[in-house]
């Protein structure tokens, strides 16, 4: 296949001229080394992308880099016999937009060790509505399953439920047979949350307690907020329930006591999607393409944009105005 000499990419710089990002023309050989070149079909926007694109968070470890921690497309050239031209693949995390060029470009060069062949049951578009957000939610459920979480323990709470990870967690958990209670400070999105699988929608005050132990009302949950809400969720979790921690939208602090752990046997599980081992990645994506596949991806995809619209999306996301998932189409 004949490839263009140059193509559009949303690139991030930090040098004597300052921190800046925008669309520019680059060549394939400007990208980090890798065994597979792909024509990018879709990427997505995650909170981490907004931090990287604006410089509001220290995400990139080298400059310049193409942004975008997610990418999906078709192989156009391969130096690894495991992949051939035309193969549909996806990559999430794995150093993209940290130490390697990411998915915000018409072409991407990726390391074959992190390329996931598109699982049967998912389209490239669906894989990027999921992206890192869906992968994180499903990884949390996998960790809870491995620690004996069952629907019989009671409803799973999802904090930050209108965000990308939260929305997909609501859908994935309910698809997997759990009752889901969405926790959100955005009452205008109650109908949205119920439409994607929440059986109940609670205000933030439901996790407003400051006592180390409260009456147990949740089987466990996924926290995307951190700080006092995570502490309150732990204090209201049933014996041997699991709470997965995947975000710090409000705070990175954890002002908790050990009482939920030593009195009720509650487990706090960390969810670190970027560094997930390959065999676990494969297992998560197989679940996402089959028994845990969200049923409302088109509803959760609330916005679809091109590269030129990324700065506005970043600003909205960092200001707390985004909900659902934003798909980037090349």
* Number of contiguous helices: 9
* SSE arrangement, N to C: EEEHEEEEEHEHEHEEHEHEHHEHE
Mean pLDDT across the residues is 96
Range of strand content: 25-35%
By secondary-structure content and strand pairing, the structural class works out as: alpha/beta
Radius of gyration over C-alpha positions, nearest whole angstrom = 20 Å
Largest beta sheet, briefly?
7 strands, mixed
Residue runs with pLDDT of under 50 for 5 or more positions: none
Count the beta strands: 16
What do you see in this structure?
- The chain has helices spanning 47-54, 124-146, 164-175, 190-195, 227-235, 259-263, 278-288, 297-300, 310-318, and strands spanning 7-15, 18-26, 36-45, 65-66, 70-78, 88-92, 107-110, 116-117, 156-159, 180-183, 200-202, 218-223, 237-245, 267-270, 301-305, 325-329.
- It is globular.
- Helix content is 26%, strand content 27%.
- It is an alpha/beta fold and 330 residues long.
- The strands form 3 sheets. Strands 3, 5, 6, 7, 8, 15 and 16 form a 7-stranded mixed sheet that branches. A 6-stranded parallel sheet has the order 11-10-9-12-13-14, sandwiched between helices.
- The longest helix is centred in the middle third of the chain and has 23 residues, at 124-146.
């Amino acid at each position: 296949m004949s490839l263009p000499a140059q193509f559009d990419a949303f690139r991030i710089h930090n040098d004597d001229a300052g921190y800046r990002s925008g669309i520019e023309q680059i060549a394939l050989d400007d990208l980090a080394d890798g065994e597979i070149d792909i024509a990018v079909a879709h990427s997505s926007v995650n909170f981490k992308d907004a931090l990287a694109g604006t410089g509001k968070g220290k995400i990139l470890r080298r400059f310049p880099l193409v942004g975008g921690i997610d990418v999906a497309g078709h192989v156009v050239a391969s130096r690894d016999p495991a992949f051939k031209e035309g193969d549909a693949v996806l990559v999430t995390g794995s150093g993209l937009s940290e130490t390697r060029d990411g998915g915000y470009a018409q072409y991407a060069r990726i390391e074959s060790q992190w390329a996931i062949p598109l699982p049967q049951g998912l389209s490239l578009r669906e894989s990027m509505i999921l992206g890192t957000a869906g992968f994180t939610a499903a990884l949390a459920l996998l960790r809870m399953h491995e620690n004996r979480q069952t629907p019989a323990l009671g409803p799973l709470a999802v904090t930050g439920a209108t965000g990308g990870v939260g929305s997909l967690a609501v859908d994935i958990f309910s698809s997997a047979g759990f009752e889901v209670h969405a926790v959100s400070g955005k009452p205008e999105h109650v109908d949205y949350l119920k439409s994607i699988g929440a059986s109940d929608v609670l205000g933030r005050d439901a996790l407003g307690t400051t006592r180390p132990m409260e009456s147990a009302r949740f089987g466990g949950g996924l926290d995307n907020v951190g700080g006092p809400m995570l502490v309150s969720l732990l204090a209201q979790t049933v014996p041997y329930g699991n709470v997965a921690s995947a975000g710090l939208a409000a705070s990175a602090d954890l002002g908790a006591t050990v009482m939920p752990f030593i009195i009720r046997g509650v487990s706090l599980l960390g969810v670190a999607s970027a560094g997930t081992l390959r065999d676990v990645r494969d297992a998560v994506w197989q679940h996402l393409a089959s028994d845990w596949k969200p049923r409302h991806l088109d509803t959760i995809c609330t916005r679809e944009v091109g590269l030129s619209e990324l700065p506005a999306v970043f600003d909205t996301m960092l200001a707390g105005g985004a909900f659902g998932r934003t798909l980037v189409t090349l």
